[in-house]
Amino acid sequence: MMRELLMAEGKSDLKIQNIVATTSLGKPVSLTKLARTHSNTEYNPEQFPGLVLRVKEPKSAVLVFSSGNLVCTGTKSVAQVKQVIDAVIKQIAKIGVKITDKPKITVQNIVASGSIDLNLNLNVLALQLENTEYEPEQFPGLVYKLVDPPATFLLFSNGKLVCTGTKDKNQLEESMRQLNKNIKAAVKKN
Q1: Burial per residue of 80-104, b for 16 or more beta-carbon CB atoms within 10 angstroms, e otherwise
Q2: What's the rounded Cα separation, in Å, for the pair 96 and 119?
Q3: Where in the chain is CATH 3.30.310.10?
Q4: What is the sign, positive or negative, of the torsion defined by CA atoms of 178, 179, 182, 187?
Q5: Partner of 131 for a Cys bridge, out of 29, 59, 105, 145, CB 3.0 to 4.6 A?
Q6: DSSP, res 3
Q7: What is the rounded CA–CA span in Å between residue 34 and residue 30?
Q8: CATH classification of 21-107 is 3.30.310.10, yes or no?
Q9: Distance CA 110, CA 181 (A)
Q10: Is residue 18 within 8 Å of 74, Cβ to Cβ?
């Protein structure tokens, strides 16, 4: 007997865990100078061409490249991404790089976690759904890839899930609607 899913049309209990966003400052940055003057950095050019700049609030890390390109990780909202980028611009200004234009921020990936109010038979879902990978002896979750909207889910038998690959809240919500619809159809088939 199938119980109704908690996440009815448009509703979900997903919680954003991480947003990965990129931007360009449009000016080169001296990573050596930044590393020398800021204690919240890690820079080892023999290992990796970028500098890691850690921001305490909101807790995040920004990869800074000499080209002026930035990759921000660890935030939980676009507002936090903007706050972190502003903090990085202020730190870069201290080494003489003045950024006058507001950088355009592009969200590359959202990672969210949540659950559905169902115990899932992952063996059945692996057979009924397309684009799945399930090897329980390797990993206890089923990997399910949606094509439209593009999203990848890790589904666990207790109903917990992780969603990655979406780029905005609308895509995230739409992928959850699609997941719910596809799971309902798979359970009915069985």
Answers
A1: bbbbbbebbbebbeebebebeeebe
A2: 57
A3: 21-107, 116-189
A4: negative
A5: 145
A6: P
A7: 6
A8: yes
A9: 21
A10: yes
